Amino acid sequence: MIWHQVKDKPVPHSSHCVLVAWMGRVIEYDVLIHWPDGMWTDETENEVEEAPDLWTPIIAPAKEKA
Question: What global pTM score does this model have?
Fold first, then answer.
């Protein structure tokens, strides 16, 4: 998993769900949605008070071979 700086993340063309982290005294993680207008919201579309510091894409696990 590679973490990227939020300040370098381009605004998406459609909503983009990503794993994010805030690098404070305690590292906090959450899944947020980044919208084309630049807004960050939680899964219930409530705007977050403070933009995260880092983000990484959510990648679906590969299917296991039978």
Answer: 0.81
Burial 22-56 (b: 16+ CB within 10 A, else e): beeeeeeeeebbbbeeeebeeeeeeeeeebbbbbe
Return the domain boundaries, the chain. Answer: 4-57
Instruction: pLDDT tens for the chain, 66 residues: list them.
Output: 899 999 999 999 999 999 999 998 889 999 999 999 999 999 999 999 999 999 999 988 888 776
Strand ranges inside 1-66, DSSP E: 4-5, 16-23, 27-34, 40-41, 54-57
φ/ψ region of 8 (left if φ > 0, alpha if ψ in -120 to 50, else beta) reads alpha
How far apart are the C-alpha atoms of 18 and 30, rounded to whole Å? 9
